[in-house]
Amino acid sequence: MPLYEYDCPAHGVFELHRAVREFASPASCPACHELSPRILSVPGVSLVERGDRVARDRNERSQHEPRVAQRAPAPASDSGARAWQAAPSGGLPWAIGHQ
């Protein structure tokens, strides 16, 4: 069961575990039994490991603003166009060990 927060006008904020189907219903305050509205609260993300949080944040950002990889500008001495040179073995430099 999820944990929800409610705000009693007389006694302040309190928490209750309730069924999901009751998420919109007000809850009675444990001190005065007055019906209190549910308030939005921050999820407990600090309990999630850092690596998982970073991956989740990266995935969320990439959904809306994917990063685009761009080639770095060529040095001034390259005149803008870079020609691939053959490796000494006659192969291509990125195909190491493949003949």
Uncertain segments are none
Structural class call reads alpha+beta
- Report the end-to-end length measured between terminal Cα atoms: 60 Å
Assign an overall shape.
rod-shaped
How would you spell out the order of helices and strands? Answer: EEEEEH
Beta-sheet strand percentage?
Answer: 15-25%
Number of separate helices: 1
Largest sheet, described in full? 3 strands, antiparallel
Strand line-up in the sheet with most strands: 2-1-5
- The helical percent reads 10-25%
Radius of gyration: 29 Å
Q: What would you note in describing this structure?
A:
With 99 residues, the chain is α+β, with helices and mostly antiparallel strands. The chain has a domain at 1-64. The protein contains one helix and five strands. The chain has one helix at 50-64, and strands spanning 3-8, 12-17, 27-28, 35-36, 38-39. Strands 2-1-5 form a three-stranded antiparallel β-sheet, with no helix packed on it. A two-stranded antiparallel ribbon has the order 3-4.
SSE layout and pairing:
Blueprint: E1 3-8, E2 12-17, E3 27-28, E4 35-36, E5 38-39, H1 50-64
Antiparallel strand pairs: 1-2, 1-5, 3-4
Which key terms come to mind for this protein?
single chain; 5 strands; alpha+beta; 15% helix; 1 helix; 99 residues; two-stranded antiparallel ribbon; 3-stranded antiparallel sheet
Summary of the model, kept short:
With 99 residues, this protein is of the alpha+beta class. It has one helix at residues 50-64, and strands at residues 3-8, 12-17, 27-28, 35-36, 38-39. A three-stranded antiparallel beta sheet has the order 2-1-5, with no helix packed on it. The chain has a two-stranded antiparallel sheet with strand order 3-4.
